[in-house]
Amino acid sequence: MQDLFSIKGKVALVTGGSRGIGEMIAAGFLAHGAKVYISSRKADACNATAKRLMAQFGGECISIPANLAELASISAFAEDLKSREPQLDILVNNAGVSWGASLDDFPETGWDKVMDTNVKGVFFLTQKLLPLLRKSGNAEDPARVINIGSVDGLKQPAFDTFSYGPSKAAVHHLTRVLAAHLTKEHIICNAIAPGPFPTWMLSTGVGGGGDTDIDWSAVAKANPRGRVGTMEDIAGLAIFLSSRAGAFTVGEVITCDGGSTYAR
């Protein structure tokens, strides 16, 4: 029972790990003894984050930049990871994008980019990494897949991001479909649906221009908990799902939103 929440020694991959929620989860994993790989499209940002997280939290954080919205890049990324690790214990599919435009003007580009990254990328990266996940998982300690959805996939989004909410609803259901297929192979899948966190993406929606060092009090005031989320909130939930404590939790979509979805 003393090791109920331990992930020490596990190997984890967090996509979209150079900033925002992905960075928060990667930091939490490092602080609790996991070896962490992070990926994002921008190599400089990904490399800088890996270096910064190791300096702050210790452990080993390795950057592998990649565009995980394209199948060729996904395949190359998976082969790279296979050359580095014999198995993968935790996969966090966090890489995601959004697109804002009015209903009348919403472009096909905005639809396809969001669906390719948020849905297609999640499915095919998981598919390509199944050999590593299968080598990790066993009856006592299954491998874990954690898909990062959104409260916008559960309720009406606050912004005119017409492809984002549907893409996250698809991620939630994809999680259940994968769980139905993979649980008996000792790979368990769950999703987290975050609410308001101080991220680049939310900052662009509330007028911060992507700057996370802004006054979040207006967003906080609208939340039942009276604040935005923190690293401890999202990393704590991801650690639970990755540890022995979460080994019997399967196919769930768990909100991490301070009550914004259901507690009003």
Compact description:
With 264 residues, the chain is α/β, with parallel strands linked by helices. It has helices at 20-31, 43-57, 71-84, 108-128, 130-136, 164-182, 200-205, 217-221, 231-242; strands spanning 11-15, 35-39, 61-63, 90-93, 143-148, 187-194, 253-256. Helix 1 crosses helix 9 (231-242) and helix 3 (71-84) runs parallel beside helix 4 (108-128).
Name its key features.
264 residues
What does this protein structure show overall?
The protein has a 7-stranded parallel sheet with strand order 3-2-1-4-5-6-7, sandwiched between helices. The protein has helices spanning 20-31, 43-57, 71-84, 108-128, 130-136, 164-182, 200-205, 217-221, 231-242, and strands at 11-15, 35-39, 61-63, 90-93, 143-148, 187-194, 253-256. The mean pLDDT is 96. It starts with 10 loop residues before the first strand and ends in an 8-residue tail after the last strand. With 264 residues, it is α/β, with parallel strands linked by helices. The longest helix is centred in the middle third of the chain and has 21 residues, at 108-128. It has a single domain, classed as 3-Layer(aba) Sandwich (Rossmann fold), CATH 3.40.50.720.
- Count of discrete structural domains: 1
Look at the structure and name the CATH superfamily: NAD(P)-binding Rossmann-like Domain
Major sheet details = 7 strands, parallel
Helix-strand pattern: EHEHEHEHHEHEHHHE
Helix content: 40-55%
Radius of gyration, in Å, reads: 17 Å
CATH fold field value: Rossmann fold
Top-tier CATH class? Alpha Beta
- The strands making up the biggest β-sheet line up spatially as 3-2-1-4-5-6-7
Report the total helices.
9
Shape: globular
Oligomeric state: single chain
Mean pLDDT, all residues = 96
Strand content: 5-15%
